[in-house]
Design brief:
43% of the residues lie in helices and 10% in strands. The protein has twelve helices and four strands; from the N terminus they run H-H-H-H-H-E-E-H-H-H-H-E-H-E-H-H. The longest helix is centred in the first third of the chain and has 13 residues.
């Protein structure tokens, strides 16, 4: 099919546009099921990111439910399929962690999800970069529409805010949100252990200080217990 479309799509590709043919739940069902079933063969860091999304995004399906959901059989909805589109709000000054065994017993690698920060000037330069082609630009607009934010001048407004940021404000922000013991610091640690690191899994899990860190055992019970950020409200995103 892609070969048949290559000739009429040539000039669009020259202009920087692109297209793709992807399997979905409404077609290519066997391919969709196979992709979901192969999720256990993902690299540990991909599994860790998947768990992070499961914990933080209220409307997010685990791959096991996606496999079962691909079969056209009438059934009750799964716990993760409630119709909401918001992000889980973590409590101020609290740390959270989630431990999991790697899904592929033959993979000896483990993974830890963490966030990387950039300095302000590098972040400004990154946001001021022009779109490399029409496809990249169209995907930016499409994501704003898809997530319902509709902030098409996002980069410009974010750069303007960054340029107004003073060194004192940045230091205050680090003291309020980032440094260990900060009153509004929120951290989430996702740790995926391979079979060869099972002893470390048990040791790390038993060593969690329950007075300082909340250990997540059941992702969906935790999600239901937490409040959600409001729908694209600035005051909610700042808390």
């Amino acid at each position: 099919m892609t070969l048949c479309l290559s000739v009429p799509a040539y000039y669009a590709e020259v202009a920087g546009l692109d297209y793709s043919i992807c399997p979905t739940g409404s077609g290519f069902r066997e391919m969709v099921i196979k992709d979901y079933e192969n999720a256990k063969f993902q690299q540990p860091h991909q599994q860790a990111k998947h768990y992070c999304s499961l914990i933080l995004i209220d409307q997010y399906w685990p791959s096991t439910e996606q496999v079962e959901g691909s079969h056209p059989v009438c059934r009750p909805i799964f716990p993760s399929q409630h119709l909401t589109d918001r992000v889980v709000k973590l409590d101020k000054g609290r740390s959270y962690c989630y431990f999991a065994n790697g899904l592929n017993p033959k993979d000896d690698n483990s993974a830890l999800v963490h966030y990387i920060q950039r300095n302000v000037h590098a972040l400004i330069d990154l946001k001021l970069e022009k779109h490399k082609n029409l496809y990249e630009e169209s995907m930016f607009y499409w994501c704003e529409i898809l997530y319902g934010t509709f902030k098409f001048d996002r980069y410009e407004s974010e750069v303007a805010a960054l340029r107004q940021l003073t060194q004192e404000e940045f230091i205050d922000f680090l003291g309020e949100y980032i440094k260990i013991g900060a009153p509004r610091r929120k951290t989430l640690s996702i740790r995926v252990y391979s079979a060869s690191h099972s002893s470390e899994y048990e040791a790390d899990e038993s060593a969690v200080d329950q007075t300082q860190t909340i250990q997540i055992d059941d992702i969906f019970s935790f999600r239901r217990s937490q409040p959600l950020y409001g729908y694209h409200l600035k005051e909610d995103l700042a808390t």
